[in-house]
Amino acid sequence: MKQIRIHNILEKTRKKKEKANDSKNGVEGESLAVMKEQENLRKKVTDLIKKQKLPAVRKIVKGKDDSKPWNADARAKVGSRLIELLLQTAYIQPPCEQLADSPSEPRPAFVHTFRTVSYENKYVVIL
């Protein structure tokens, strides 16, 4: 997560630099100062990364980062998709003692089942 924030800060400063190069004639003094500050920030962060001073980079990024934490709905959607991908891709080999009896075929590592339980007019799904 921290690397993503660092990358986002570097991308934001790069985008502003490219936009300023596209519109050189309409640059005001105020936007020029902001652009210069962003360029200095980018240079400072990249220098600290090269020197492997990551705590200092984290401190700078924490002060400049304007991203918000994910809400519970977004986390649930991402988590369910990750579990779905894990169920689709995770396979295991059968134990060695079973190999002599039958050919070696990979089988799913996880089994996904539903069991509905009724408890005082409430229904629960157990996975």
Automatic annotation (TrEMBL):
DNA-directed RNA polymerase N-terminal domain ranges (all copies): 3-125
Biological process terms in GO annotation: mitochondrial transcription
Pfam families: RPOL_N
Molecular function in Gene Ontology: DNA binding; DNA-directed RNA polymerase activity
GO cellular component: mitochondrial DNA-directed RNA polymerase complex
Region Disordered, annotated ranges: 1-30
Regions crossing the membrane: none
Signal peptide: none
Protein name per UniProt: DNA-directed RNA polymerase N-terminal domain-containing protein
Organism (species): Populus tomentosa
